[in-house]
Amino acid sequence: MKFLVIDHVSHTYFTRQSAVTALEDVSLAIEEGEFVSFLGPSGCGKTTLLSIIAALIKPTEGTILLEGNKIDSMNPSVGYMLQQDYLFPWKTIEENIFLGLKIIGIDTNEAKQKALNLLSEIGLKGVEKHYPHQLSGGMRQRAALVRTLAVNPKILLLDEPFSALDYQTKLKLEELVWKTLKDYNKTALLVTHDIGEAIVMSDRIFLFDARPGRIVHTFIIPEELRSLSPFAARQHPRFSELFQSIWKELDQLEKNR
């Protein structure tokens, strides 16, 4: 049984004046512990698909199954990390990372200690009593990652979580997130516009066409890249070769719009 199954999912946004189909007949299956990326032109429905998996919106057609069970309501097994950190500015970092635990009623001393241990593991030891404005953008995103992982989700949805950061911080966070998810054997889906980021983070890349969004190509990342950390993978000769191949397909999709 596949860990996550997206089965013939389509979605149309309706207004009084129009109907816009964001996704059309998207089907794919993801293994436990796999890291996949969704790549494609703007408006191809990547974020819509993440929102459907998170049960923030219901698809017009199709089904999402997690470990064989249909996802039709918000579920703590699905963690969602966005481009902005959305930390509450009036709460300390400690209070922010405990928030999910409190909401789902598992804010035990043991669970809180595990969250604090993770905060320390990703280099934020000593900031527990700080407020978000006292941290850099990269530090806030790390805190947001801890908040997401604290409730021990089975799958993590990442919606361009590094795009608002400077390039050096972005590379460091790619490395950190990749290692953390590998260490905890988490399944992850990344939405990104960055071809290089998709290559170095992923096991597979699903390339979407736009309007309506549908999968047009699946790239399987070579083992010699998957076995390397993101920074090391960028230095490998196969990286440039794969980057060019994906870029050409994306460029053609843009020209065909």
From TrEMBL:
It comes from the Bacteria. PROSITE patterns: ABC_TRANSPORTER_1, ABC_TRANSPORTER_2. Transmembrane segments: none annotated. Coiled coil: none annotated. The keyword Ligase does not apply. SMART domains: AAA. Residues 4-235 form the ABC transporter domain. It comes from [Anoxybacillus] calidus. Keywords: ATP-binding, Nucleotide-binding, Transport. InterPro entries: AAA+_ATPase, ABC_transporter-like_ATP-bd, ABC_transporter-like_CS, ABC_transporter_ATP-bind, P-loop_NTPase. GO terms for molecular function: ATP binding; ATP hydrolysis activity. This is NitT/TauT family transport system ATP-binding protein. PANTHER family: ABC TRANSPORTER ATP-BINDING PROTEIN, TAURINE IMPORT ATP-BINDING PROTEIN-RELATED. Pfam families: ABC_tran (PF00005).
